[in-house]
TrEMBL record:
Isomerase among keywords: no
EC number: 2.3.2.27
Catalytic activity: S-ubiquitinyl-[E2 ubiquitin-conjugating enzyme]-L-cysteine + [acceptor protein]-L-lysine = [E2 ubiquitin-conjugating enzyme]-L-cysteine + N(6)-ubiquitinyl-[acceptor protein]-L-lysine
GO molecular function, one term: ubiquitin protein ligase activity
Name of the protein in its database record: RING-type E3 ubiquitin transferase
Domain of life: Eukaryota
Domain U-box: 1-61
Alphabetical keyword list: Transferase
Length: 240
């Protein structure tokens, strides 16, 4: 039940169901057959709050249960299905994303970037990006996990879809100073970004170019870009 309402007979129904009942020409209560005032539908706020609280408890239990399934590195299909459920929850509500943070999911998601299954890695990258978007605390937590940035950068050298997800995540992380400093220091990262900036995937190329722009604050990064035949920021420095 999503929107419980009371009728004039004090019976509670789902709003859409009782409205359909009335639209079909019925004017009596479906349960008691007492004649109803069809203009009276009062929101049952107490029941609605109880339903929301029940849903929240179930969601919190689901999030905690899925963590165990993912963390155990069991059957790949089971892990993928668990990650799909998590992704759906993250996309639904900000509160769900906060609950993932409370369950310390970031560490688990970083760990499974080492999986041999690319679908598992892809889902982990998507969820990390959702958590990091417009959330400084999430960005900080990701950066402070050992080898987190290195693991994400490693995905830049894999298949197209994974590269695209990885560069989108790194771009989001680069809005956080500590992450930006770390990204440029990972061996091979800038070369991979330069390669992607010249690639056929327009979105990935745009993200890689923007990420290179964000990394250009550092002279050392600009030198690495030039060594990879990407001279945009070196020329800008020489002209000022």
């Amino acid at each position: 039940m999503v929107e419980p309402v009371e009728t004039s007979s004090d019976q509670t129904f789902e709003r859409s169901a009782i409205e359909k009942w009335f639209e079909e020409g019925n004017k009596s209560c479906p349960l008691t057959m007492i004649p109803l005032d069809t203009s009276v539908l009062r929101p049952n706020k107490t029941l609605k709050q109880s339903i929301e609280e029940w849903k929240d408890r179930n969601t919190m239990i689901t999030i905690a249960t899925l963590k165990e399934k993912i963390h155990q590195f069991g059957d790949d299909d089971e892990v993928i299905n668990s990650l799909k459920t998590l992704q759906d929850l993250c996309e639904q509500r900000e509160q769900h994303r906060e609950w993932l943070m409370l369950e310390d999911y970031i560490l688990v998601l970083i760990q499974i970037l080492g999986s041999r299954n690319r679908d598992i890695r892809n889902h982990a990258l998507v969820i990390l990006c959702i958590l990091a978007k417009d959330n400084e605390e999430a960005k900080e937590r990701i950066v402070t996990v050992d080898n987190a940035i290195e693991s994400i950068v490693h995905s830049l050298g894999r298949r197209q879809e994974e590269r695209k997800l990885a560069v989108a995540l790194l771009l989001e992380l680069s809005k956080y100073d500590l992450a930006r400093e770390h990204i440029g220091k990972v061996q091979g990262c800038i070369l991979l970004l330069v390669t992607m900036s010249n690639g056929d995937d327009n979105q990935a190329a745009e993200d890689a170019t923007e990420l290179l722009d964000n990394l250009s604050y550092s002279d050392q990064n600009v030198i690495l870009m030039a060594k990879a035949n990407y001279f945009k920021h070196l020329l800008q420095r020489l002209s000022t």
